[in-house]
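Give me a protein, keeping tokens residue-aligned:
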Amino acid sequence: MRATVGDRLVQHGRVVGQHDKVAEIVEVMGQEGNPPYRVRFEDGHEAVCSPGPDSEIRHKEMHTQL
């Protein structure tokens, strides 16, 4: 999993009815785009995370075309 600042991290809900969590990557702390990432959620909350298999990166190019 590789990301750059400005990409979106989408953490998919694990349980039926649980919504996906979407955060903007504000800092890449690993080497060559690898985790961990500092992310900012839509409510302004920031966290450091190493995404698991239930997550995906949506690159800047993808969400600017939507």
